[in-house]
């Protein structure tokens, strides 16, 4: 008999445990393939520790090929699913020709994604904590803030750099702010010009209390512990909007900050959203056996799926499987059993599981735990937390690596190496009314096009007494002198209302404007007409070696 | 007495050892500040091991603040030096206002940079091995090649992906190809569809033999060992040019490859080149005391400096200090002593040092060594190599970390986690005559402007029998359907001669074209005029969920 082809898409807890169980139960009968964008499994509970550099980035993840030795692993992006033809369309590597993968049974385990669109400025200015790159970015960002704060002479800039804000106080938010605080505290002795009381940490939660899934007394304990360590816990207040230099709360407060971590806003994975399946609460509706109704051979599990625990759960969220690793692991095993049962013509079993409890680390060797109804807090809970996650981490190598990390890190100075990466070439930037985009004396960095709102440019030449002013509205642009051989801004640009620009970095913009004749002509004309030529309004700065034009290849 | 301000720019071996010695010898008299773009010191000899993931990226570097506890560390970019005003102009953090740092004595320790301009295509398509990001990029790239090769059905693509080339056979080139080979060999058991004999490694050297600084018999031994492990050593042949899919050698051979590592082409640091100092062989000429003649209080050392070992060395390179860590460390100490002597009104001492030998690792626990004139090869040399570099690594914590890495890695499976990063938004791509830029059925990825050369587009519509052809020359563009809601290419674009394009990634190009009215209008007109409207020549693909337009912020 030909082997049945099972494709699992998504390599989180649900996908990995389903693939593992399928391979084991179906050996010889099933050909299992797992498709994932990354070649590794992310152990999400450890991401805050990666951000704090307690754990090396590569040690909080496990290569899928090592975890699933007998499963075909394919690192690829899923572009679409054709349910009628029973195929998944993927793109892999640099040769971008879509490939069809045909399945007999398909398991959708794509998880969720972050959706911050309801909060203006948050998608553009907040960091998230979903994957390894996020944790790495947060760590790099925090150390960068310390580096600059140590040498800046501007007290406002310093305060902004030393204010760290986490929005959302579930597990992820609480553990993230606790770990960031731990990293900063340990690092401070290497930053002689930063005093501990200059650093501020905020945990912002819209609900009346933090850790909503925990008993109230444990949440109260956690709040006290966080506050004892200098973390300001603000509950009952939400985030309204954000810019690159501040966050505005629903009570009108504006907190100047360079660091906002958003752990709120769960939305469906973009592919899941595009499949046309029956969804509820942004999750794929399944039956109690985790089958997707109306589709032949399609299953869903994990955070992406809404799996009822009883026959008619209606709108009671407690009657569906919760979106935790604990559940996903059990769902994976049950789903594998059901697929094998289906192929063998046997009876399927509905998914059933009751949570055994919750754990949350508070940093500083403290945690809260609610296990089998027993409530624990403090160091014992923290040891339990570490032990539990170590046991939960799949693979012996991974356990050993993380254990060693913890051991080494507890006796060594913190790792404050900042591995910088290039910021994206284009980005949308939000400004609040009155914010300065740039001012005279700043190094040119790129080109700005107004997407929404308005800005005012003023140039004053102290030598000639000349004054120049110009208003920019949607579709207008400023900062084009990035194309000229001058290094410093001579004008001041201020937002006249809450506004958004598209920023294009100098190198990328210059490359395009030089290569593309329409732009080249347009900007020459524009500079001539608006400013009276390239020489007129532009005083050359003294630091122009960086702005030599790139040699064309 | 007011303290004298000493600024050291550059945090490599020369800068770090100079700063350390200055702080120690000048305690209470000197105020030492080190300016570096990164907040860490890179232990360059270990970079190939980072590329092979034998060592965690963060462990091959040491935070400068931990290394130089009493030195003010400033993570900033040096934009210029005003020798007359005795100030260094730097830019730090996100607030890009240049800051003046005044010095009494200035130490230039900026090292060198890679300059591949002589080889068309190499600057754009080769990886380098200068800093931590390079090593990390190479590792990620190699694992990505294995991931795609494991699942591709195209034998040509597979061969290209499994060919790894290093250009230049000094220490860095030899160790890099040896380590890449080691990583691939250890990783292969997780890639069931790749056979060992499908993988090719090349080491290409223009000189008649590898390791030019070693005795000939050691180099011959190294060549034999590398070849025994399947690395093809090509000497007496250079690199002529490169594209994204092949490298062309000076003997006319074309090797299809996705991976070219260039360890050749030393050029001056861009800032050093812009200073207007007296240079020779791309290095700053100093006197025997490491002073820069004609400048008040300016010193130079390390790879950036050309330090004579005798009074009139003329054009004999052997009569100048060599560009190695061994020399840089001694130069740093002597330079610090000379600065202190100068300030104390005492006599300066000329720099003098003789190399104690060389070591090069060949992977597979083998190395070659030439120490105090004693020649060693094999495992003993390799143990010496490890011991020597461990002892040379500054700081106890760093030694312990690297030692642990070696220990853990020797008993554990290789780390094949691929932490992907976004490719740059704009890049120049070289094509050889006949190369395909894209073909029908490929996913659209971006927009192309012709920088040099020419291309031919052909579209054949099998349904209507229509045929469309167009020639593109410098300033022309293709791929603009990236702006439309269609997912797959319908045309074939081929290079008619050796050519270069500027590529702009889909997301960034679309953002700009939408925000900037001139472009928006231009492309609507262009598509109408050239193809007869957006509907005409563009067949919508089946995988279009990825190409929904981004919601404007």
Find the structural class of chain A using helix and strand composition.
alpha/beta
The portion of residues forming beta strands of chain A comes to 25-35%
Q: Could you give the distance between the termini of chain A?
A: 58 Å
Number of strands of chain A: 33
How many DSSP helices of chain A?
14
Average pLDDT reading of chain A: 91
Q: Hey, which two chains have the biggest interface?
A: A-B, 113 and 113 residues
Q: Please bin the fraction of helical residues of chain A.
A: 25-40%
Written overview of the protein:
Two copies of one chain form a homodimer. With 553 residues, chain A is of the alpha/beta class. Chain A has 14 helices and 33 strands. Chain A has a five-stranded parallel sheet, with helices on one face. A four-stranded parallel sheet of chain A has the order 13-12-11-17. Chain A is globular, with a radius of gyration of 27 Å. The first copy, chain A, starts with a strand and ends in a 22-residue tail after the last helix. Residues 537-547 of chain A have low confidence and may be disordered. At the A-B interface, β4, β5, β6, α5 and α9 of A face β4, β5, β6, α5 and α12 of B.
Features:
14 helices; five-stranded parallel beta sheet; alpha/beta; four-stranded parallel beta sheet; homodimer; globular; about 550 residues
């Amino acid at each position: 008999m030909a082997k049945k082809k099972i494709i699992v898409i998504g390599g989180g807890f649900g996908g990995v445990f389903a693939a593992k169980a399928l391979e084991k139960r179906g050996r010889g009968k099933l050909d299992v393939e797992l498709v994932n964008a990354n070649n590794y499994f992310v152990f999400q509970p450890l991401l805050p520790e990666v951000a704090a550099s307690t754990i090396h980035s590569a040690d909080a993840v496990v290569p899928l090929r090592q975890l699933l030795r007998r499963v075909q692993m394919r690192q690829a992006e899923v572009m679409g699913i054709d349910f009628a033809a029973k195929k998944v369309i993927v793109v892999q590597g640099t040769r971008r020709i879509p490939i069809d993968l045909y399945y007999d049974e398909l398991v959708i385990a794509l998880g969720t994604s972050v959706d911050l669109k309801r909060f203006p400025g948050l998608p553009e200015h907040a960091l998230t904590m979903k994957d390894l790159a996020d944790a790495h970015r947060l760590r790099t960002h925090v150390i960068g803030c310390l580096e600059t704060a140590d040498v800046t002479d501007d007290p406002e800039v310093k305060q902004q750099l030393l204010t760290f804000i986490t929005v959302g106080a579930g597990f992820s938010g609480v553990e993230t702010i606790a770990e960031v605080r731990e990293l900063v505290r340990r690092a401070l002795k290497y930053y002689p010009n930063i005093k501990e009381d200059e650093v501020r940490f905020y945990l912002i939660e819209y609900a009346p209390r933090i850790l909503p899934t925990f008993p109230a007394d444990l949440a109260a304990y956690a709040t006290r512990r966080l506050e004892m360590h200098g973390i300001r816990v603000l509950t009952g207040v939400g985030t309204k909007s954000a810019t690159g230099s501040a966050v505005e709360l629903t009570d009108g407060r504006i907190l100047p900050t360079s660091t906002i971590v958003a752990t709120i806003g769960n939305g469906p994975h973009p592919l899941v959203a595009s499949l046309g399946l029956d969804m509820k609460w942004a999750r794929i509706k399944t039956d109690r056996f985790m089958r997707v109704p109306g589709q032949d051979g399609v299953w869903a599990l994990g955070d992406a799926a809404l799996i009822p625990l009883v026959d008619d759960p209606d709108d009671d969220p407690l009657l569906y499987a919760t979106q935790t690793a604990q559940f996903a692991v059990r769902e994976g095993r049950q789903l594998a059993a059901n697929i094998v049962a289906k192929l063998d013509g046997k009876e399927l079993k509905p998914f059933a599981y009751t949570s055994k409890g919750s754990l949350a680390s508070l940093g500083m060797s403290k945690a809260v735990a609610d296990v089998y109804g027993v409530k624990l807090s403090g160091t014992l809970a923290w040891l339990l937390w570490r032990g539990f996650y170590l046991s939960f981490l799949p693979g012996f190598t991974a356990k050993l690596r993380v254990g060693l990390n913890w051991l080494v890190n507890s006796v060594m100075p913190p790792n404050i190496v900042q591995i910088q990466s290039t910021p994206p070439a284009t980005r949308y930037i939000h400004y609040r009314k009155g914010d300065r985009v740039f001012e005279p004396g700043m190094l040119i960095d790129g080109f700005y096009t107004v997407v929404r709102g308005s800005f005012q440019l003023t140039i004053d030449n102290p030598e000639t007494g000349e004054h120049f002013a110009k208003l920019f509205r949607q579709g207008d642009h400023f900062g084009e002198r990035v194309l000229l051989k001058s290094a410093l801004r001579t004008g001041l640009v201020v937002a006249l209302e809450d506004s958004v620009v598209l920023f294009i970095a100098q190198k990328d913009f210059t490359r395009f404007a030089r290569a593309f004749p329409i732009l080249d002509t347009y900007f020459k004309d524009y500079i001539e007409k608006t400013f009276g030529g390239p020489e007129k309004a532009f005083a050359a700065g003294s630091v122009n070696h960086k702005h030599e034009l790139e040699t064309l290849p």
